[in-house]
Amino acid sequence: MYKKVILFFIGIIFFFGFNLTYANLIFTEVMYYPSDSDTTGEWVELYNNGGNNILIKSDKDSYGTSAWRFKKGLTTEYYINSPDFTIGAGEYVVLADNSSLFVNVLYKVIDSSVSLSNTNATDLAILDEAKASVATLQYTPSADSQDTGKSLQLINGSLVAAAPTPGKANGNAVSSPSADGIIGGISGGGSGSSVVLETISKAPEPKIRTKVTAQTLVFAGIPVEFQASTTGYSNEPLFSGKYFWNFGDGDSREIKMSDNQKFTHTYFYPGEYNVNLEYYLNYYSNIPDATDKIIIKVVTTDIFISRIGDEKDFFIELSNNTNYDADISNWALSSGLKNFTFPKNTIISPKKKTIISPNLTHFSILDKDTLKLLTPQGKIVFDYGASIIPKIPAKTAAKNTTPALAPITKLNLTPEMPLALPAENSEIMLGDNLGAQASAASNDLVKNSSFRAYILTMILTVLIGASAGAVYFIRQKKGILKAKDDFKILDE
Fold first, then answer.
1. Residue 4, CA distances (Å) to 1, 130, 297 in order
2. Of 154, 265, 343, 428, which sits with the fewest C-beta atoms within 10 Å of its C-beta?
3. Are residues 420 and 475 in the same domain?
4. Is residue 6 part of a domain?
5. Does the residue 244 lie in any domain?
6. Domain check: are 481 and 336 in the same one?
């Protein structure tokens, strides 16, 4: 007798335990009255409050007996007009008849003829393939949720009118169930038996967490600052163990937690690099206790001084020639012993420029030739003085027989004279073109020298030939005259 009683209670516990693990789907939000003119904007939100995935069978094509359904009122049932789908643990799904209302939200379409009541208390339910209620909700329309743009949301065990949050958590976590198994109109059931619906939000599993802190958009050749932080099972900061960094470009670093400070790493080429961080609580362990990763996008450094002012208004213009926001926080302008550092959060938009007043920098026209743009680490990004290169005037080059550079011409740059676009006869040219122009000048000189040598050789050849011919002619003529003289002597 006692064995039968024990088996009976074991069966009851098993039965209820099964339903408790199954009945994890709950209604969390209802939009029943979007506006007077909107008849297609009604929707409901479901949430998987358990630790397991829930498979919803919809039988979109056959609508057979194995399909789950959405129920309104006591008798009206609707098929979910979508293929079978799964709601993961801790995920939301929206059932609606107008999917165009939702962006980046998991939604499934229900029958377009569904119309939620705007005036009377209404029971809603989700039925499984056995037509058992997996989750139910009873909502009562209220003045502050009718034609106001607000929905009814389950907050602290009650349905409250609030700004809609489809596919996202409401203002507060769902409260615990009351003794009778009903919370704010939510109840659960299955196979004809009353089942208490567990609505307590599952607390996150305690674990060690680590995090990478760094800028995700950086410039090639400029050091990137990295730092890591780690918390323990009770969210307390950890200060023992070690980190292993992999920067994604072939370089890595191992750091003791006791030495965990900010450090820099330099990417030399543009691209996207996966930075992986592993934390080891035990310094000698081979299995990480926590990991994190970020993607660093490296772009070409194309920030330069594009214009400067004159002696009356020596402004400095910086240009961002990249396709990204350029963060030049803590960068500096330097000239001789003068320095100006940009404050944090100084951003230049893509393909845009910014002008800095001399009232802030305290630079003057005398600083033009030594003006530089520096990174926070002191690396020169752009040297304005080196970008102004003298050009050889055409007339001077024609007169000189040997190549020589013309003296540097001083310039009076004004706002109307951008450095990047010099005038045709200007004495400015960018440093990048110096090699090409010098090479061209050298080639011209070599060609001219070769041509002159060729002409000179031809002239000398003609002169030598003419001289040789003249000498030969004269010598022949003298020989003939002497012969005549001899004949005359014999006649006598």
1. 5, 29, 69
2. 343
3. no
4. no
5. yes
6. no
Boundary-marking domain end, from 269, 299, 329: 299
pTM of the model: 0.41
**Which structure tokens are listed for 348?**
């230049």
Q: Could you count the other beta carbons within 10 Å of the beta carbon of residue 82?
A: 17
Q: What per-residue string of b and e applies to 114-127 under the rule 16 or more CB within 10 Å gives b?
A: bebeeeeebbbbbb
Q: Is residue 255 part of a domain?
A: yes
List, for residues 355-408, the tens digit of each pLDDT value: 999 999 999 999 989 999 999 888 898 999 887 765 555 555 445 555 544 444
The total of structural domains in the chain comes to 4
pLDDT averages per 10-residue partition of the chain, 492 residues: 55 44 74 71 84 74 66 77 78 76 62 72 84 85 82 85 84 41 33 30 68 90 90 86 94 86 91 94 88 92 92 94 89 91 92 94 92 90 80 52 46 41 42 47 55 76 77 62 46 44
Residues 63 and 108 in one domain: yes
Q: Judge if 263 and 240 occupy the same domain.
A: yes
Same domain, 41 and 186: yes
**HEC states along 234-281?**
CCCECCCCEEEEECCCCCEEEEEHHHCCCEEECCCCCEEEEEEEEEEC
- Residue at 239 is within a domain: yes
Question: Where in the sequence is the domain holding 184, given as residue range(s)?
Answer: 15-195
Question: 140 and 55: one domain?
Answer: yes
Q: CATH number of the domain that 251 lies in?
A: 2.60.40.10
